[in-house]
Amino acid sequence: MRQKVFAICDTEEAYAVRLMEYMLEKVRLPYVFHLFTKAEELQKFMQREKVEILLIAESVLRMLREEYIRRQVTQIFVLQESDEARSESLCCISKFQSPIAILEALADSVPELSDWSAEEQASDTEVKLIGIYSPVKRCLQTTFALTLGQILSKEHRTLYMNFENYSGFGQMLKRDFSMDMMDLMYYFRCAKDKLSFRLSAILQNIGGLDYIPPGQSLMGMREADGNQWLALCEYVARIGQYEYMILDLDDGLDGLFDLLRKCFKIYTITREDSFAVAKLNQYEQILKFNELDEIAAKTVKCRFPTFKEIPVALDSMTHGELAGYVKAIVREDLYGE
Hints:
CATH class of the largest domain: Alpha Beta
CATH topology of the largest domain: Rossmann fold
Helix content: 40-55%
Number of strands: 12
Number of helices: 17
Largest sheet: 7 strands, mixed
């Protein structure tokens, strides 16, 4: 079951970040949080996601059509910035008070928050990293990864991250990305306090699956090591409350084995031709030589049958022969059925 969305929208960046960080770190409310500092970002998000609770600054609300907001949001709370009276049907909360006072005001109107306890609801579950890697090229690795991610996203909070040197994502999707994985790494390294709200602006969605646009700079991707990528994954998972992260991995990534070692499951796609067999044998020998038996032990080798048709549209990967194959893998390997 997908978790409910709690959105905060305020053009005062510092204020909005402090408010959301308090709710994330101190209280652990039963929602997935999204932070927006522009009205158009919120509007774009609501076109694809249902928002359960919206905490929106009075000045931002004036920029949007109230009727549209009411249709897209279950409960609206206005952070009041003036003494001007608004519609009685809108719940107004003074913006100029402490985060705990704002939370208490929300709890008065949202029954499920009234008895919420950080101690009782804190979860010790960690994100499960799923690595997709094969030394064999043109083997449907990314197609498999996207299919797996879209299937999992129907039941779980799932994020897809592509680490390929040349993913071709923008061209395939006919999209221009203003920010990508390297921007995410920049904020993680240099402006960690801003990452929580920048994540909402960087995140994209395809077929119900959240993803970070792949990095466009080969050299930039190589500047980060395995430990940095792991730390970033864990931090993003906590902010987005993701249960699964699909890592579509590539040879050129510094720290490939570090990431694979942390994955709880690894899928390696193989083929029957002699070159594919030779490459896989060499990869397995390298694992053995470097005493990486734990990676080999967690690896599931997938040799696909010949599919009559592979979906062309990347946003509809949950139907067809490949999807049926992947669903069987999910049931057996991830759910233990």
